[in-house]
Each structure stands twice: as structure tokens, then as C-alpha cells.
Specification:
By secondary structure, this protein is an all-alpha fold. Helix content is about 65%, strand content about 0%. The N and C termini lie far apart (about 75 Å). The model has no long low-confidence stretch (mean pLDDT about 75).
């Protein structure tokens, strides 16, 4: 393999020159971590980390919620794609537009459908959060 072309502006010595097979971190020397000023701080941070680990280990993985989200993400496009076969016929028969303009209005309606879904998504999220938070709060108190 020929050496890489030399640039007259390169000022690196030959020992520091790199090519595509040179490891990126070959010139970096490890630096030791500084010791903490107060040893009690190190002990407290270790205890806090261990407590957080115990708390995470006790919580099971919410498998039902994850499966519901996966199902929703697979089913959500059906609403969008289900209008494609029918929209042209609907515009032509109900819309009262000329045949040449059906494609324009079809694209307009499909685009507005997506834009409306995007805008209403936040509202539906807030409504669901309020409803489920309220329902969960009632269950917790009874």
C-alpha cells in the first residue's frame, strides 16, 4: 500500500503521522483520577449508588406496557393507510370537483390528515395522562 499523499502544510513528524489503520487513541496516555478531598464524601456517594441499584432491581420490567406500546406503534399506521383506497372515489363522487383536480384534493386531504394527527397527538396525550393518572389515584386511595 503506498503511503498517503503528503501535504506541504503537514508539520507532524513521521512518528506521529497516522493513516486509516492507526488506532484513534494510540497517543493518549491514561491519567489517574484525583483523590477526593474528603474521604467521607466518597463513602456517602457509594452508599447512595448502592441504594439506587437496589431500588432499580426491585422494580420489575413493565412488560404489559411495553407490549401495548409495541402493538400501538404497529397498528397506528393502519388509520393513515386505510384512507388511500377510498379517498379518490369519495372526492370524485361527493366533492363535486372535476376529474383533473381529484389528485390535488386527494393529496391535500391526506396531508391534512397527517398534520391533524400530529397537532392533536399532544392533546390526546394530555387527556390520557389525566384520565389514567386520575383513575390510578382513585385505585390507590381505595
Amino acid at each position: 500500500m503506498p503511503p498517503p499523499p503528503s501535504n506541504k502544510h503537514d508539520t507532524l513528524p513521521a512518528s506521529l503521522a497516522a493513516d486509516e489503520s492507526t488506532p484513534l487513541l494510540s497517543q493518549v496516555e491514561p491519567i489517574p483520577l484525583p483523590e477526593p478531598a474528603d474521604p467521607s464524601l466518597e463513602q456517602n456517594s457509594t452508599e447512595a449508588e448502592n441504594g439506587a441499584d437496589d431500588e432499580d432491581e426491585e422494580k420489575p420490567l413493565p412488560k404489559a406496557q411495553i407490549l401495548l406500546l409495541c402493538y400501538t406503534s404497529c397498528v397506528a399506521p393502519i388509520a393513515f393507510f386505510s384512507i388511500f383506497p377510498y379517498i379518490n372515489f369519495m372526492i370524485e363522487t361527493v366533492g363535486g370537483v372535476e376529474k383533473e383536480d381529484v389528485g390535488f384534493y386527494s393529496g391535500l386531504i391526506e396531508s391534512l390528515f397527517s398534520a391533524t394527527q400530529m397537532c392533536v397527538m399532544i392533546l390526546w396525550g394530555k387527556v390520557c395522562f389525566f384520565f389514567f393518572a386520575f383513575a390510578f389515584e382513585i385505585k390507590m386511595h381505595h
